[in-house]
Amino acid sequence: MAPASTLAPESAPGSESAKARTVLVAENLGRSYHGNAVVSEVNLTIPAGQTVAVLGPSGAGKSTMLRCLAGLEPLETGSVGFQGELLSKAGSKPRSVGGRIGMVFQQFNLFPHLTATENVALAPVRVRGVSRAQAREEAHELLARVGLAERRDHYPYELSGGQQQRVAIARALAMRPELMLFDEPTSALDPEFTREVLAVMRDLADSGMTIVVVTHEMGFARRSADRVVFMADGRIVEDGPAETLFTAARHERTRAFFEQILGE
């Protein structure tokens, strides 16, 4: 098995040097579909080692914003910078960053004809250019990290939804990302499997991985996020420390959302 250090970034995410860095900057993001604005005037800065939870009602533009941050959507206004370099800007095709931004979606999108190990090892061989043997070793290590060491030779149809989502997380980690984006990763899961996936995400957050997660899981956002971004109508309404937004939000729209969700 490969030593843990082979899977770590050059600066450990939780180190002082990592915390001093800014991983991602979004300025004045705008995106619309069929003439309808979905994301408008979004400004966001993500420091290294921080976990940011993006909350808001359905249709607020959260997932579209996340896709813009990942370079998966063309911008109509604004720009996104990643690690000091321009990732995307209005009017131009987003630049590929080769897996340095990992993304986990609502659907698992695993290859059904590949085992868990093969799903995780595929991209490192094809994109990072590592040997098949090294990729398998790293895949085994990552699957153990997400609690699937004993299921590594199983096919997706032999895994529960929570296990498949954990394979998807391991697959994203195999590219050694400097930023992990999660788009409602538990929305398609039953409560039992939701807990499994949230436990893996908490472990990543505790390890210092830089994370932005769109979620409806209020407990995770409150306990595990450093920061909460609240969105409504395609805009960021409020952005601050998680506990502050949960207990003393400044904006009426934010307070109304938490009162409705939490029943307070």
From TrEMBL:
Q: Where does it live in the cell?
A: Cell membrane
Domain ABC transporter, chain residue ranges per copy: 24-258
Q: Which UniProt keywords apply?
A: Amino-acid transport, ATP-binding, Cell membrane, Membrane, Nucleotide-binding, Transport
For molecular function, the Gene Ontology terms on record are:
ABC-type amino acid transporter activity; ATP binding; ATP hydrolysis activity
Cellular component GO terms held in the UniProt record: plasma membrane
Source organism per UniProt: Streptomyces paludis
Where, if anywhere, are coiled coils annotated?
A: none
Indicate what this protein is called per its UniProt record: Amino acid ABC transporter ATP-binding protein
PANTHER family from the entry?
Answer: AMINO ACID IMPORT ATP-BINDING PROTEIN (PTHR43166), GLUTAMATE_ASPARTATE IMPORT ATP-BINDING PROTEIN GLTL (PTHR43166:SF9)
Keyword field contains Nucleotide-binding: yes
Q: What is its main location?
A: membrane
Q: Which Pfam family, just one, is annotated for this protein?
A: ABC_tran
Keyword Transmembrane helix part of the UniProt annotation: no
UniProt-listed SMART domains: AAA (SM00382)
Cite the InterPro entries for this sequence: AAA+_ATPase (IPR003593), ABC_ATPase_HisP-typ (IPR030679), ABC_transporter-like_ATP-bd (IPR003439), ABC_transporter-like_CS (IPR017871), MetN_ABC_transporter-like (IPR050086), P-loop_NTPase (IPR027417)
Recorded hits in Gene3D superfamilies, A to Z, give: P-loop containing nucleotide triphosphate hydrolases
Instruction: Give the similarity note.
Output: Belongs to the ABC transporter superfamily.
For membrane topology, the record states: Peripheral membrane protein
